[in-house]
Amino acid sequence: MQFQFINKQVEVRAHGDINPFDISNSDFTRAVAMAEDKKCNLFIDLHSFGGSVIEGNLIYNTLSNTKVKKLVDITGIAASMATVIMLPADRRRMNDDSFIMLHRPVSYVEGDEDVMLETAKILTSMRGTMAKRYAEISGKTIDEVNALWLNGKDNWMDAAEAKESGLIDEIIVTGRAPISKAEVLANTKNVFEKFTARLAVSEPNTLKETSMKKDLIASLKLEGVTEASSDVEIIEAIKKQRTEQDATIKELQEKAEADKEKNIDDLLEEYVTAEAIKKDQTAAYKEVGKALGIDKMKAMLPVLKKPAQQAVPLAALVKTAPAAGAAAAVNVSADGELPISSETWDALAKKSGELESVKKNRPEVFQALYKAKYGVEPKL
Question: Which residues form the signal peptide (predicted)?
């Protein structure tokens, strides 16, 4: 998205998709700030197929919350969320050969019924917000808006129909041969590209103005170019940056997937080792983990039994030699190991000096024995 101060107003060229990287709220915020600073109008040249509902709502709120006068001209196509961001304008105009399209918000999700129900709930809420905004501008009721425009279909309107509906205020006569509505309905993407090709941009709206180049370079943090660089060089710098960003995102996504798969494999190996599941069951569990996440896979796995408490070698417990007969009294096994338990505490307590010796020589063992006996840490 491009914008600059020209002809005593801030002009925005919003041609593309609504998302954080193209027609974005961050750019609109900066454009609005410039218009507020210069105390002038904000003019928006709109040609968009729509895009992110979230980003579009941010733009709508940014435009609604400013007191500067806002003017919108639809010079090509305004479809889906693009029809929402035009609504806060004080004046909405449309070329006589342009089109708008309204429909319900859509989403593509993968998951279980809970995910689907939550997505449906969000989409219903989004549709309600859109219906309210269209109703406020057109003068129709929310029920009429839902029936006419948010009815599960793509509802295309030419300039005359859009004006009759109350969504625009004025039709601009271009003198160009109009694109037929039948052609739009037959292949909307091709028509969108056709509009893109035929929309002439006047010389002042190019990147040749030094101040705009400087702002663009600073906002995108472009490397290897300055305000003295040509438009082509700046565009190539943007493409390079996007390519590098895409590569970084792809690398991070691949690493995240690899880490996720390793975590799944490690967890399943733990269950196989503990004999909680069989080796030939891991493939099925792994597919669940990859599709729904490791937490849901874990919820389907059997509960692991806690491992038996490891015996502690007697020599590690008491460095001093025990009194005669002590070994038998504390049930030392043939390999010299002694379990930590309340019974062990009782056995040592029967022999004079044994507990004192453990407390003096191995206080950490004494603490373990005490806790096994009484359930709390001793106060040493």
Answer: none
In tens, the pLDDT along 260-310 reads 889 999 988 988 888 888 889 888 888 888 888 888 888 888 887 665 544
Tokens of 100: 């708008």
User: Which residues, 6 or more positions from 300, have their beta carbon under 8 angstroms from its beta carbon?
Assistant: 285, 288
Contact 81, 106 (CB under 8 A): no
Would 380 be classed as within a structural domain? no
Sign of CA pseudo-dihedral 181, 183, 189, 191: negative
Domain span at residue 345 reads 312-374
Is the domain of 69 the same as that of 212? yes
- Adjacent-strand bridge partners of 94: 74, 171
> What gap in Å lies between CA 223 and CA 359, rounded to an integer?
67
Q: Which of 327, 329, 330, 312 is nearest to 367 (CA)?
A: 312
Of 264, 279, 307, which residue sits at a domain end?
307
CA-closest candidate to residue 152, choices 172, 123, 181, 176 = 123
Kindly state the tokens that stand for 275: 């004999």
Residue 106 backbone class (left: φ over 0; alpha: ψ -120 to 50; beta: rest): beta
| Angle in degrees, CA 50, 53, 80, rounded to 5 | 35
CA distance linking residue 24 with residue 17, whole number of Å:
9
Is residue 77 within 8 A of residue 101, CB to CB? The reply is yes
**In the chain, helix, strand, coil percent, each to 5?**
55, 15, 30
205 vs 97, which has greater pLDDT?
A: 97
Phi/psi at 305 (nearest 5 deg)? -75, 140
Distance CA 168, CA 164 (A): 8
If asked whether residues 216 and 243 sit together in one domain, one would say no
Number of structural domains found in the chain: 3
- Answer for the pair 310, 337: CB distance below 8 angstroms, yes or no: no
Q: What's the pLDDT band for 321 if we cut at 50, 70, 90?
A: very low
